[in-house]
Specification:
Length: 129
């Protein structure tokens, strides 16, 4: 609530924390012998939490969603990493990765449905269509 009242960009903080924590867990896993827990468990859980945070942020401040749209898109692109890891056979436990990817896509679709009119108006305004 403090961040919403102060008009800070929470989505930017969510994106930075998602990337930083993911890199930190991968680094820790690498340093202790790379058992794969960072890719199979930690990163999908981090992605799920960041998507749920963005969904709550969209619901709480839906009138300002257009400010968060680019961050949402970057998180969705980052959420594709578990799917890439699955196709490259880096991950052996697919359940969390599939759940993370599905939640990410559903979150993006829900946000587009909630705010499609605002997004369309912003695109028309910015690109003079």
């Amino acid at each position: 609530m403090y961040s919403i009242k102060r008009n800070t960009n929470i989505a930017g903080h969510v994106l930075i924390q998602t990337l930083a924590i993911s890199l930190l867990t991968a680094y820790i896993d690498y340093r202790i012998g790379f058992r794969g827990w960072s890719i199979e468990i930690a990163i999908p859980i981090i992605i799920i939490i960041s998507n749920l945070t963005m969904l709550i942020l969209t619901i709480v401040s839906y009138k300002r969603y257009i400010r968060y749209a680019i961050y949402q898109l970057i998180i969705v692109l980052f959420s594709a990493l578990p799917a890439v890891f699955m196709t490259e056979r880096i991950i052996h436990n697919n359940a969390l990765s599939i759940i993370a990817t599905i939640i990410s896509l559903l979150n993006f679709i829900i946000c587009l449905v909630f705010c499609s009119k605002d997004i369309k108006e912003a695109i028309v305004r910015k690109f003079h269509m």
